[in-house]
Amino acid sequence: SSPTNALLGAVSNAVVTIVENDVEFLFGTPLVSALESAASATVTVWRRGGSSVTNTVQFAVTTNSTATAASDFTSTNGTLTFKPGVTNLSFLVPLLNDTNIEGSETVELALSSPSSGTALASSNTTAVVTLQDNDSQFNFLVVTNSVAENAGTLTLNVRRTGGTVGAAGVSYATSTNGTATSGTDFTAASGTLSFKAGETNKTVVLKVTNDSALEGDEGLSVTLSAPTGEGQLGTNGVAQVTIAEDDLYSFTLTTNAVSVAENGTNVVLSVRRSGATNATTVKYLATGVTAKAGTDFVASTGTLSFADGETNQTVTVTITDDTLIEANETLTFALNTPGTNGVLGAISAATVTITENDAALALSAATYTVLESATNVVLTLTRTGTTNGTVSVNYATTNLTATAGTDYTNTSGTVSFAAGVTNGTITVPVINDSAIETAETFKVVLS
Questions:
Q1: Could you tell me if 145 and 123 lie in one domain?
Q2: Phi/psi zone of residue 229: left (φ > 0), alpha (ψ -120 to 50 degrees), beta?
Q3: Cα 73 to chain center, whole Å?
Q4: Do residues 142 and 241 both lie within one domain?
């Protein structure tokens, strides 16, 4: 204004815009999960630190992916253009549904080449899309079975392997192979086994008829068919059943289900021999379902030798205690391959459930905010893992910028959780003073 020896021109004022230059890009959610059967997975990228101008950033699939491009997904890359005011954009990763039993696979994506004046964030610049396998396979756990004519029933286990994220089903039906007769030697059976999401095992119970005819061993088959819900038939889709003449001997477990605490040393299963009493053998095998051999239990296989007249033996499966917070886990203990003239009885397999014994205690949040005028601040404790038994944890406050005795009352103690209780609280009194001061903090430490 007020020029000397000059006049003001047409443009006598200017507006200066200060453009934010601390813009950075990151993935909104670094872990994305999608069913293999979904058309695509959506991945979101955020721009933070400013949105007043147009910025760009590139994305692409990395070589760290375990999924295979063109088989499991369509490789994708490109440039995201953030116009003024836009803080997040999304792009799609096209997924390809196959019928392979392959487990979960991953697609890793990375951000790169942010436009001038911007940068990649210090974290979350890669994202992993997990493709959950939706393909499952149905098989009989044991394909060669034998049951004593006087056993009454035989239970066949049908195992679902592969993806278990959705519901699936498979039909079954009995048929004679030319020796056993429906209605005379066994009751014809057919139906559908419906597996809920996460279920891995179902059973088919066959009714066996004990007659007085001297007819020798007889046979029938049980066949799986018509899988649904992304299910497939496996190689063990037909179970052969031999109905053994009841003047033989049979082997059976005394229970089909047993539980053992994870911190238990072992579980003992009893095998009973009935019928003939001459010396014989039967084999056994312990296999993991959700429990893992070598991690949760010691893999066990072997042969039980029954002496002449001996009717009972036991097998010990060693349980491994770990410190992981995990759900209850299961393994299957199954008898197989009885000796000459021997058959498997009504209970030839048992499910062993390893019950979780580990618990974790933690605060429900890492930060809490309370008004200075409040009487107390209440912090919530949560108990995860097992809820069996009583557990406790100590706590104590410590200064950060707040001062005990002036801003809050120094507090320490112990919180106990009775059996079945999953939540507890810690109460710290807050002192309302008249000082003009900024927000202050203190820490509550568990020990």
A1: no
A2: left
A3: 23
A4: yes
29 part of a folded domain = yes
173 shares its domain with 228: yes
The pLDDT score that the predictor gives to residue 21 is: 54
> HSE-up of 104 (CA within 13 Å, CB side)?
12
**Per-block mean pLDDT, blocks of 10 residues, the chain (447 long):** 73 63 91 89 97 97 93 95 97 90 89 97 96 87 93 96 87 90 94 94 95 77 92 92 82 93 86 86 94 90 94 94 77 93 90 78 89 92 77 92 93 91 93 88 93
8 A C-beta contact, residue 317 and residue 246: no
CA-based diameter of the chain, in Å? 133
Identify the three-state secondary structure at position 277.
Answer: coil
Structural domain tally of the chain?
Answer: 4
CA distances from 368 to 273, 376, 416, 424 (A): 64, 12, 22, 16
**Among the listed residues 217, 205, 220, the one whose alpha carbon sits nearest the alpha carbon of residue 246:** 217
Distance, CA of 10 to CA of 340 (rounded, Å): 112
Whole-number Å distance between alpha carbons of 264 and 254: 20
Q: What is the pLDDT of residue 17?
A: 55
Report in angstroms the alpha-carbon separations of 143 from 45, 158, 441. Answer: 51, 10, 66
What CA–CA distance (Å, rounded) separates 154 from 222? 12
Nearest to 306 by CA among 328, 334, 332, 338: 338
CA dist list (Å): 213 to 60, 207, 424? 73, 17, 68
Q: Which of 326, 356, 386 is the last residue of a domain?
A: 356
Q: CA-to-CA distance for 19 and 354, rounded, in angstroms?
A: 61
Same-domain status, 123 and 36: yes
Q: What is the pLDDT of residue 118?
A: 96
Distances (CA, A) of 205 to 38, 210, 232: 36, 16, 22
Quote the pLDDT of residue 358.
60
Q: Determine the Cα–Cα distance for residues 445 and 413; give it in Å rounded to an integer.
A: 11
pLDDT recorded at residue 245: 77
Q: Which of 160, 93, 168, 159 is nearest to 131 (CA)?
A: 93
pLDDT of residue 230: 78
